[in-house]
Target: D-malate dehydrogenase [decarboxylating]
Amino acid sequence: MNDYRIAAIPGDGIGNEVLPEGIRVLEAAGKRFGLSFTFDHFDWSCEHYAKHGRMMPEGGLDLIRKHHAIFLGAVGFPGVPDHVSLWGLLIPIRRDFNQYVNLRPCRVLQGMKSPLAGRGPDDIDFYVVRENVEGEYSEIGGRMFRGTEHETAMQESIFTRRGTDRVMRYAFELARKRAKKHVTSATKSNGIVHTMPFWDERFAAMKANYPDIRADQFHIDILTAHFVQHPDWFDVVVGSNLFGDILSDLGPAVAGSIGIAPSANINPEREFPSMFEPVHGSAPDIAGKGIANPIGQIWSGAMMLEHLGHKDAADAVVRAIEVALADPKARTRDLGGSANTVECGRIIAEAVATA
Ligand code: NAI
Ligand code: MG
Model:
């Protein structure tokens, strides 16, 4: 019953260095909490593309459709255009498996320093809920008159009632489980006059179902300023694919280093596996040196544990990360220390036993 089959996709660059540390910590948590994991490894990556002309084999998704979850490192590397690597691997997984929620906790952990002066763990603790399968990131559009002075590019946004309602419902349900019980919507209905007023209408309709939750909304431009100036205002922030993408990089940035930020691509109905991955990319500038911070991957593993129904194990992993952050010997270079990836991962795995 507590045996889990996990598809492990290290991907590119530092994905290959941090994923093993994520696995090390999951195994340590499993040992303590009576969970067992079988990791099936898939070498889908830009290297795979260089060899076979595809990021993953044809029918690849069928190989991981029945897994309990997907644990991914990072995808993308110089030599393969980013839109090719992204649309060849990450986006098909997100869409085929209907992972319509992209969830990112933005929290200053004990032992971390926010780049915002005077802000600490009490001020920054919110979630960004990003719509992950439709909106601005659509395949509908085209290019005409290429290479001439009449060259034209057009791309349509897709906002469906079903897609909008379900991500907003997820945000309200999440807020219900939290102390502040507050949802903020990211909009731009003053400038984008069809889809965003629709988004606002659906938000108003959804909020009527949740009288116990405080709800408000801001236009995306001022909202980014508020993230920096008033991060303590937020609890759960819901946005479209594009706005959520921007906010979900800004949020972790105000909470500390990109190297520690985790994310989850969730299919809330559990018809398909959900995918857990650090926010950062493949970091070509430091890849192969063994110095990447594995905490983003490890914290993503904690989100996976929580999704699988083991909040106690997830909390222990986050506490173990906090223990490590307080230990100068565990800090990687991006956090001002000199630990390498494996040293940091080992200290966290050891701490999980008692944290
Ligand atoms: P990046 O996140 O890979 O790197 C940005 C900067 O942060 C670099 O200086 C890097 O050294 C540093 N950094 C990132 N993760 C770190 C870690 N764990 N420890 C220490 N330092 C870390 O973003 P970039 O350079 O824009 O993208 C590189 C490649 O990764 C591109 O091909 C991009 O498409 C891909 N990418 C993939 C993502 C994914 O798989 N979800 C997300 C973001 C980028
Ligand atoms: Mg992004």
